[in-house]
């Protein structure tokens, strides 16, 4: 069961269940970036389909519990001989993400499965190619080619996100901006709004599956926030943390939906 769940987790990892993008800034522009894929609900559903929903009278083994952080630089040092023997593409991908880390928190009994990819950065400029680095981390799993084929050749593909946009971050003494750039044309962008056909049976079933899924952004600053451009954003009591989210499907239709401008309080 453990192996099946982990394989399913890797599949969800590249599709999404709930995603939280978190950036914590220290004084100055250093901090931590972490994107977390929360797959507990999907794990529960999959476990039930595999016969995990047994009655209370049945004796069950205690589910697996895991809470770990893997630092790629440490892995590369520990397993340097094995990594040297990898195909060039995998070796280059490992080298590109040397400065990153990966977290995994799992509790089968509680229905928790969170996988995170992160970076401790010295400057906001270090986040310039963060999406490319995340894709490289994702490409390191052995099921990558099969999942890529699924993305390109199945109804699920359109629900797995696009590679045609990039996100940039900027911060000054006055504020912060998250900006999405898309590579498709205006006509293609308009078509994104009609990407999902509710009259199509496959689309309808998948839309129902992703109905509760979301993409959340959480930003923590060393300075108090004066205003946020995202309409329904929540600001913490100390006015230093901003949280907002959009449904996964609406985000897929318009990745720029999560762009934001934050203005700091004058000091």
Question: What can you tell me about this protein's structure?
Answer:
The protein has ten helices and twelve strands. It has 267 residues and is of the alpha+beta class. It has one domain. An eight-stranded mixed beta sheet has the order 3-4-5-2-1-8-11-10. The longest helix has 14 residues, at 2-15. The protein is globular and about 55 Å long.
Q: Which percent range fits the helix content?
A: 25-40%
Number of folding domains? 1
Shape: globular
Distance between the termini: 56 Å
Provide the β-strand percentage band. Answer: 25-35%
Q: How would you sum up the major sheet? A: 8 strands, mixed
Radius of gyration: 20 Å
Report the mean per-residue pLDDT as an integer: 79
What oligomeric assembly is this protein in?
A: single chain
Low-pLDDT stretches: 1-16, 153-158
Identify the strand order in the major beta sheet.
3-4-5-2-1-8-11-10
Order of helices and strands: HEEHEHHHEEHHEEHHEEEEHE
What is the tally of beta strands?
12
- Indicate the structural class: alpha+beta
Which secondary structure elements does this structure contain, and how are they paired or packed?
Elements: H1 2-15, E1 18-25, E2 31-38, H2 40-52, E3 65-71, H3 72-78, H4 80-84, H5 88-96, E4 100-107, E5 112-121, H6 130-139, H7 144-153, E6 165-171, E7 175-182, H8 186-192, H9 201-209, E8 214-220, E9 225-228, E10 234-235, E11 241-247, H10 248-253, E12 260-264
Helix pairs in contact: 1-2, 5-6
């Amino acid at each position: 069961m453990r192996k099946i769940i982990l394989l399913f987790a890797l599949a969800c990892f590249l599709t999404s269940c709930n995603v939280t993008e978190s950036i914590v800034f220290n004084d100055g522009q250093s901090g931590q970036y972490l994107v977390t894929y929360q797959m507990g609900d999907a794990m529960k559903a999959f476990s039930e389909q595999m016969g995990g929903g047994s009655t209370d009278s049945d004796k069950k083994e205690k589910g697996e519990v895991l809470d770990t952080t893997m630092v790629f630089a440490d892995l590369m040092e520990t397993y340097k001989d094995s990594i040297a023997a990898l195909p060039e593409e995998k070796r280059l991908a490992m080298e590109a993400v040397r400065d990153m880390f990966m977290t995994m928190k799992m509790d089968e009994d509680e229905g928790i499965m969170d996988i995170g990819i992160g970076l401790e950065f010295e400057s906001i400029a270090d986040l310039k190619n963060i999406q490319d680095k995340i894709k490289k981390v994702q490409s390191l799993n052995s099921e990558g080619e099969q999942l890529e084929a699924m993305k390109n050749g199945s109804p699920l593909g359109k629900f797995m996100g696009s590679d045609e946009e990039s996100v940039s971050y900027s911060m000054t003494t006055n504020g912060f901006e998250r900006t999405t750039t898309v590579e498709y044309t205006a006509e293609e962008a308009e078509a994104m709004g009609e990407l999902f056909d509710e009259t199509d049976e496959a689309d309808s079933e998948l839309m129902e599956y992703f109905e509760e899924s979301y993409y959340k952004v959480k930003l923590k600053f060393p300075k108090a926030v004066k205003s946020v451009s995202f309409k329904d954003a929540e600001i913490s009591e100390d006015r230093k943390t901003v949280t907002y989210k959009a449904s996964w499907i609406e985000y897929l239709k318009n990745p720029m939906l999560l762009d934001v401008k934050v203005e700091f309080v004058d000091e």
